[in-house]
Amino acid sequence: MPETNVDELKKLSPEERIWKLKALEEEKKKEIEEAEQMIKESVSEMKHEHEVEEEVEEEERLQKEKFDLDKKDDLEGLVEEEAKGAEKELSDELVKQQQYKIIQDLSQAPLQNLYQQVREVYQKVTDNGEMTPAQERMLRNLNYAMSEKQEAISSGQYAPSGNLEGMMDASKSMMDYIRR
């Protein structure tokens, strides 16, 4: 309904005026609802991106700690070596658990978020000319999440629009290109 000015409304009969005002009210309610939904989605996306960044940083920190532990000289004897082995197993288990959580979170993320993250990794790799271990892990995680999305689409649990299918194809193409 085009913008209605007050003078035009005053010229209408009371019934027509009420009808036009109610139609205008409904239109504005829909606009407000759409804006509120967009706000909720944006906040959710920002929160998810922040969580993923924190998890990746934590994973990188754990990997560095593991690397530092592996570099230390073992001068303490067999007992210390066994203790170190147990510590390494615990660290590996924590990394695996964290990796699993990251993958699960990514597979639950909207396809647009996955596409954006693939695009960011692609851009960084093409800018630097090489892929870091963290980018390699992120790419592997994103690939798994995209596979989960594809399975959900195949089983009918997730129904993307045409544009989202294009995003999935573009994401897969970028991942294939990076791996070469």
Index terms:
180 residues; mainly alpha; 6 helices; elongated
Give the helix level as a range of percent: over 70%
The number of distinct helices, counting runs of at least 4 residues, comes to 6
Largest sheet: none
Order of helices and strands: HHHHHH
| Helix vs. strand class | mainly alpha
Strand content: under 5%
- In total, how many beta strands? 0
Rounded to an integer in angstroms, the radius of gyration calculated over CA atoms is 26 Å
Mean pLDDT: 77
Poorly predicted residue ranges: 72-76
- The global form is elongated
End-to-end separation:
53 Å
Give the SSE layout.
Blueprint: H1 6-11, H2 14-71, H3 78-108, H4 111-128, H5 133-155, H6 162-179
Helix pairs in contact: 2-3, 3-5, 4-5, 4-6
Account of the 3D structure:
This protein is mostly helical and 180 residues long. It has a domain at 109-180. It has six helices and no strands. The protein has helices at 6-11, 14-71, 78-108, 111-128, 133-155, 162-179. Helix 4 packs antiparallel against helix 5 and helix 4 runs parallel beside helix 6. It starts with 5 loop residues before the first helix and ends with a helix.
Q: What's a quick, concise take on this entry?
A:
With 180 residues, the protein is mainly alpha-helical. The protein has helices at 6-11, 14-71, 78-108, 111-128, 133-155, 162-179. The protein is elongated and about 90 Å long.
